[in-house]
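cron nightly-structures :: item 1 of 1
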Amino acid sequence: MDLGAFSISLAVKDLDASRRFYEAFGFRVFGGNAEQNWLILKNGDHIIGLFQGMFDKNILTFNPGWDADAQPLPSFTDVRELQRRLKAQGIVLQQEADETTTGPASFIAIDPDGNPVLVDQHR
């Protein structure tokens, strides 16, 4: 099952302090908007999203259709197909993508330890 690019989305208390901390580890700002309280940082293929005041927990994020540079892949498995496959295996989803649509959509599953897993397709 190809889930696309992977990142961890961190719920941070102080965006600037978190940015400086991860920059010390070699991460650099790759995207986002600090004025809107979110930044995407990258170090090689490793991606961290910093989100201040947007959600309560850290989230594992997969982006079908994107590579690690947020560039479109020539082919990929649509988020709705991934959703169907997981549901067929008994995975309960907290939020589902509308299967009557095409294009951007997302779903959320919660792992056995309470960690949200977001599968978020942007195209």
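cron nightly-structures :: done
The domain at 5-121 is CATH 3.10.180.10 (2,3-Dihydroxybiphenyl 1,2-Dioxygenase; domain 1).
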